[in-house]
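Hi Y.,

Following your request, here is the sequence exactly as I used it, all 280 residues.
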Amino acid sequence: MRSQNQKQSPYLHLYGDDTLLRAVKNGRIPLQTDWSFLQPYLSFVQWHDRKQQPVSEQEILSALKAHYEKLPDTIRSLLSFEDFLQQRDKLEPDIRQTIRRKRRSGVQGYAVERLDKAAFLRLYSSALIDSAWQRHGAGFQGVCFCLRSDAALLTPKPGYPALLKPVGYGQAHQVAPSSENPVPGAFTGPETDAAEAEWRLVLPRGEAEVPSARLTKGDVVRIYLGPLADTELVKSVRHLVRFDQRFRHCDLFQVVPDVAHWKLTAQPLDPNTDDENDAP
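Below is the corresponding structure, written out as C-alpha cells. Let me know if you'd prefer a different format.
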C-alpha cells in the first residue's frame, strides 16, 4: 500500500490529444467528468454486500431456532422444535425482512452521486510514463503539457475550490465524506498503478456541459510531443510556441524510445526549424 504522502513535484504533467491542444490555444483546460475508470472498485459492495442475495434456507432455519430458544422453558417443554416449525409459514415473512434489514446496516459503498457532481484532471509527475501516453495521450500520438504545480488552475482560491492531491494506491476503502476526503474514491487507485505517481485535481462540476478551467500565462512551462505524433500535430505545436506570446517561453521536446533501454526519453526540439527537417 502506498500512502498519499508523496512529495509534490514542482511540475505536473497533463497528457492529451489534439482536442486538448485546441483547448489550450483558447486558454482553457477541459475537465473530465467520467469516473468509470474507478470501476470495478467503486462498486466493490456488490461482491461483498449480501443484501441483494436471496435469503438462504440455513439463515431461515437459524432464525427459527433463535425464535424457539427464546420461548419460555414451560412452553419448550411441551413443544418440540419440529412442532414449532409448523408455524414457519406465519413467521417466515418477518424473518426474511429482519435478515435483509440487518444486511443493509452492513458494508457501505461509495456515493457515486457525489462523484457525479465533481470534475477532475489526471496529472502525472513525469512526461515519460508509457501507460499515461497510451491511456491519455492518444496512444502515443498526442501531446503532454508540463504545468507548474503552483499554476493558477491548480490552486484553490475564493470561488474556485480546487483540491489537488496525490492518488493513494491500494488503500483501505474510505467511503464516508470528511474534510480530508470530501469526495470519497476521487483520490484512489489500485496498487499495481503506484509507479505512475498520479495526482488529481478535483473541482465542482458546475452547470457547463463540458466544464473547463482557465489557463493563464506561465502555467505551462514545457510541451512534449508523443513518439507517434503526426506531422500536423508537430506543426501546430511548433506554431504555438513560435508565435503565441503565452507560450513563447515554453521548452519543446519530442518524446522518443531510448536508444539503449526499454524506456522513453525526451529530446529538445527547436520550434524555429523547418517542420519537414525533423518531424517524426
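Confidence is low (pLDDT under 50) at residues 276-280.

Thanks again,
Q.
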